[in-house]
Amino acid sequence: MSAVEILGPITVVLLSFAGTNIDNLMLLVVLMVAEPGSRARHRAGFLLACAVVLALAALGLLLDDLVSPAYIGYLGFVPIGMGCYLMISRATTNGASASAAELAKPRGSGAGMLATALLMLGNSADSLAIFIPLVAESERASLAWGTAAYMVSAGLWVSLAGIIAGHPELRRRVGAIGERLVPLVMIGAGIYILMDTATDTIG
Prior knowledge:
Blueprint: H1 3-20, H2 22-34, H3 39-57, H4 59-66, H5 69-72, H6 77-93, H7 100-103, H8 113-122, H9 125-137, H10 140-165, H11 168-202
Helix pairs in contact: 1-9, 1-10, 1-11, 2-3, 2-10, 2-11, 3-8, 3-9, 3-10, 4-9, 6-11, 9-11
C-alpha cells in the first residue's frame, strides 16, 4: 500500500472518531466532575463502549461478503442524512434544548463501569452510522491501520476528558465547538464513503 492509501483511512478514522465522540467526551467529563472518586471506572466504561462500537463496526466485513461494494457504499447517505438533520434541528431549536452532557449528569453516586459504557453506547448511533459502512468499504490491508487509529483515539479521548474536567472554561468551549463540528464531520465522512464507492465501481 502507498502512503496515501494508508493515510487516507487513518485520517478519516481520526476525524470521524473526534467528530462523533464530542458528545461522549462531554458526557465523560460531566461524570468525572460529578464523581471524582470514580474517574477510573468512567474511563474504563468509555473504553469498553469504544470496543463494542468497533466490534459492531466489524459487521461491515459481513456486509462486504454478502453485498456488492457498489451498493454498500451508498450507506454513506446515512451519516450525510444524520448530519443534515442535526444541522437543521439545532438551527430551529436555537440551542434551547439541554445538552446531552447535562441530561446525563448523575443524580446519585456509584455509577459503575458498565453503567458508563451503556450510557456511551446509547449515544453512539452516529459512530455506527459512519464506521459500519467505512469498514465495509475499506481494503483488508488498511483495516489494521484504521483499527489502530481508532484505539489510539479512544486512549487520547480519556486523557483529554481528564484535562477538560479540571478546566470549566475549556469545558464550555469544547461543548460549543462540538455542536458545530459533529454535523460537518458526519457529512464529510458520508461523502468520503460515497466517493470511495464510486472508485470501487469504476475499478
